[in-house]
Amino acid sequence: MKQLWLMRHAKSSWEHAELDDFSRPLNRRGNRVAPLMGRWLSMQESGIDTVVSSTAVRAQQTASHVLAHLPSGTTLESTGALYLATVSQWVDEVRRFDNCRNVVLAIGHNPGMEDLLAEVADAGIPFPTAAITLLTLKIEHWSQFSLSTETVKMQGIWRPKELFRDCGEE
User: Left, alpha or beta for 84 (phi > 0: left; psi -120 to 50: alpha)?
Assistant: First the structure.
């Protein structure tokens, strides 16, 4: 059995028009909410042993904030393949995870994450910035990952606005 936590990067800044999408950093709200979500994850005793993150600046910053609250042995792996990944790219990436890892947190972007969740849940599910979901996978090896409802069960979605006060728009 494997567990896949998914997190959308925290709120990013549009303040610097000269930056391309990949280079946009977190804004003030993102820098406030990402550590809160990391702390929340640590209180869940999630068992996360690896964080796999998109290489986009906002995803890397989100990962850094979250890692600060996870156990010291938690590793960070970065991959450009999760930047704006489609559902099929997500599936391919998860299948490549090191099988020694049992509980992985993957940090990425919409629309791919919402599309992935829509396939798992067979319904559209809003997945705003810094939201987290947990997928329990009835598989022994990451290479067996598929979106079959027989092997994937969504355990819930946790959104910052639902978990914490004062996480609204700035």
Answer: left
C-alpha angle with apex 38: 151 to 73, nearest 5 degrees? 80
Tokens of 135: 């997928």
**β pairing state of 132-137 and 2-8:** antiparallel
pLDDT tens, position by position, 36-79: 999 999 999 899 999 999 999 999 999 999 999 999 999 999 99
The pTM for the full model equals 0.94
Going edge to edge, which strands form the sheet with 103-108? 75-79, 50-54, 103-108, 2-8, 132-137, 152-158
Give dist(CA 108, CA 112) in Å, integer: 8
pLDDT at 168: 53
Nearest to 78 by CA among 61, 60, 92, 96: 60
